[in-house]
Amino acid sequence: MAHETIARPARAGRTRGGRSQAARRSGWRRRLVLAALAGLVAIAAGVLLADVRRTPAGALAVLQTGDFHALLFSPDNPDVVLFGHHRGVLRSTDGGGAWAPLVERDGFDAMALAQPRSSPRRLYAAGHDLFRVSADGGATWQPVAHDLPGTDIHAFAVSPDDPDRLYAFVVSHGLLTSADGGRTWQRSGGDAPGDVTALVSAGGRPETLYLGSGRAGLLRSADGGRTWQRTPAQPGSDGVYALALDPAALATVYAGTGSGLYRSADGGATWDKLPFPGENAVAVAASPARPGRVLAIVVRNGRGLVYRSDDGGRTWGGGANER
Q1: Running DSSP on this structure, what letter comes out for residue 18?
Q2: What three-state secondary structure class fits 307?
Q3: In the β-sheet with 240-246, what is the strand arrangement from edge to edge?
């Protein structure tokens, strides 16, 4: 008897190629997802390339704040840096590469930041109608109870020898000093210029101070601010807008000017122009915790470009392998 061939019914939805319609739809979905992911990767790569193109080679970061005031290294951590600007304070924990707000509010115009090495948790912020202190490294802030004749403070410094000895240049009132952490103040009696832009203390008895001016350049006081003289040589010819001392060698002065960054190893008697990659230097800081580490900012096209040196300003860069 002939065998009867029984045709097996096709499974619902099977196609000539052996794949179900559901499988085909699933395949299309996978391809669409992969295409979308590829597009997102391409967009992200384009954004990254655009960011690289916008950041000059060697710059650690680009700051887009409205102005560029103060830089300050932590006394005990060379990777922690603070930056004061018109609306608060930014903080970096990687030596100046990435920044996040520590304080962000209107009216917190931090033109100067100061932190005593002997009291590293204490932090002062001074500026336009601003005089505040933090006892916890900047997490919280309180107004300082004081008898200053005004609070338009354009320059501010703390003694490296005494955390309670403060110096403030107040617009229209000149230079004042405090011996009690800012509660009471006395005029220094010195003939400081009226356009002070920066102030640092090298300590000592009597105290040595350096003062930057847009018109008068760099001045030095060897008597705690009672008298001032221009340094024997001047860093550049376009005014001094930022100052920093090497904490390991207080006769080493860094001066940011309208024509670049300069360094003196002899208290201002002679100066060398550093190969800083900027036509100006509006803020500068030297690390107490890592000798030779210097951070500086150049303003270019309204942006603040951050650069770092780990050899006292001889070379500048800032890659991860240099930290």
Answers
A1: S
A2: strand
A3: 240-246, 249-257, 260-264, 272-273
At 45, list the tokens: 């790569």
Write out the DSSP string of 243-306: EEEETTEEEEEEEEETTEEEEESSTTSS-EE---SSS--SEEEE-SSSTT-EEEEEEETTEEEE
Element (H, E) at 90: strand 88-92
Q: Do residues 155 and 198 lie in contact, with contact meaning Cβ atoms separated by under 8 Å?
A: yes
Average pLDDT of the chain is 84
Coil, strand or helix at 279: coil
Q: How confident is the model at residue 257 (pLDDT cuts 50, 70, 90)?
A: very high
User: Can you give the residue ranges of every domain in the chain?
Assistant: 23-54, 59-322
Strand order in the sheet with 283-286: 61-63, 303-309, 294-300, 283-286
What span, in angstroms and rounded, lies between the C-alpha atoms of 294 and 260? 14
pLDDT in tens, 124-173: 999 999 999 999 999 999 999 999 999 999 999 999 999 999 999 999 99
Question: What does the alpha-carbon distance between residue 60 and residue 317 come to, in Å, rounded to a whole number?
Answer: 7
* 178 contact partners, CB below 8 Å, separation of at least 6: 146, 164, 165, 166, 167, 168, 184, 185, 186
Question: What pTM was computed for the model?
Answer: 0.81
| Count, residues in the chain | 323
CA torsion sign, 261 to 91 to 209 to 193? positive
C-beta separation of 160 from 148 below 8 A: no
Sign of the torsion angle spanned by Cα atoms 314, 82, 212, 106 = positive
Query: Which is the CATH superfamily of the domain at 59-322?
Result: YVTN repeat-like/Quinoprotein amine dehydrogenase (2.130.10.10)
Segments in the chain forming alpha helices (H): 21-54
Q: What's the Rg (C-alpha) of the chain?
A: 29
Q: Cα–Cα distances in Å, from 170 out to 6, 51, 63, 155?
A: 104, 40, 27, 8
pLDDT value at residue 23: 41
